[in-house]
Write a structure and sequence with these properties.
107 residues, mainly alpha, 7 helices, 0% strand
Length: 107
């Protein structure tokens, strides 16, 4: 197996600061990673054995890999594509077939 690369902390980064910056309540898992090396070498199976939720485990592993690639951790809330169009002017102007039939006196 390929050994996992441990990246040196940049800009005074610690385990606590890293988990707080990525957000989504991951700071509740600070006690499970006593050192920086443990954060970067722990695999998914061991995280599951620690009692971590699947979503938190995947999210932390993704951000650990992003940090290896040079990204700085930050929490970004992604907007839903469907919710973004809910109150657009063109969306509000759309009429249903039933409304069109009423307007033209077909019902």
């Amino acid at each position: 197996p390929i050994p996992r690369r441990i990246v040196e902390p940049r800009n005074g980064m610690t385990v606590e600061l890293f988990l707080k910056k990525i957000g989504r309540g991951c700071d509740q898992h600070i006690s499970k990673f006593p050192t920086w090396e443990s954060l970067f070498t722990t695999k998914g199976e061991k995280m599951r054995a620690m009692g971590m939720d699947m979503y938190d485990k995947k999210y932390i592993l993704r951000w650990v890999e992003n940090y290896r690639q040079g990204w700085e951790p930050k929490y970004e809330r992604f907007k839903s594509k469907t919710k973004g169009n809910r109150n657009r002017p063109w969306k509000l102007q759309l009429l249903t077939q039933k409304e069109l039939r009423k307007q033209h006196g077909l019902d």
